[in-house]
Amino acid sequence: MKKGLILLCIVFVVGLVWSQTSIQSKQKQTIAKDTVKKSKTTAADISLVTDSISTKPLQLKAFKKSVIASYYADKFNGRRTTSGKKFSNNGYTAAHKKLPFGTKLKVTNEANGKSVIVEVTDRGPFVRSKEIDLTKRAFMDLADNKRSGMLRVKIEIIEN
Question: For the segment 60-80, what is each residue's pLDDT rounded down to a tens digit?
Fold first, then answer.
């Protein structure tokens, strides 16, 4: 009788400890999921050479070579883009006439080889000679001459 009671107590304690551990684990998973949902990844967070999650090279699809890129004027800061997102000249976004919103692009300056990764969030530019409008930050990361208003670039689409 004593052995049965002791065994029952041991099973009860082990079960209690196991259920507490399970509850704590689920709480940690929920907190981690909520944190991931609240954090926003920007194009700046994506590595230029490799995918930020794994070490495999980015899959790039050539889109256009030797096209003109310009940048947004400061007066657009804080306004809504065509996609509905709030525009910031300090981000890494772009405007393109036809590419779908959310498309990630690698834009490379053909003169110096510098490149940035941007996300299409707006429509434009509405000038026939220009192919893409970049944020001021993205443009300045590419430019050698910070006073220039246009660059000749190569655009590649980043495929998932």
Answer: 989 999 999 999 999 999 999
Q: Partners of 68 in the beta sheet?
A: 152
Predicted TM-score (pTM) of the model is 0.65
The model's pLDDT over 12-39, given as tens digits with 9 standing for 90+, comes to 666 655 555 555 555 545 544 444 444 3
The span from the CA of 5 to the CA of 1, in Å, is 6
3 state DSSP class of 109: strand
H or E element, residue 7: helix 2-38
Any bridge partners for residue 159, and if so which?
Answer: 59
Cα distance between residue 137 and residue 92, in whole Å:
7
3-class SS at 82?
A: coil
* Exposure string over 76-110, b if 16+ CB within 10 A, otherwise e: beeeebebeeebbbebbbbbbeebeeebbbbbbbe
User: What digits encode the pLDDT tens for the residues 131-146?
Assistant: 999 999 999 999 999 8
Torsion angles phi and psi, residue 130, rounded to 5: -105, 140
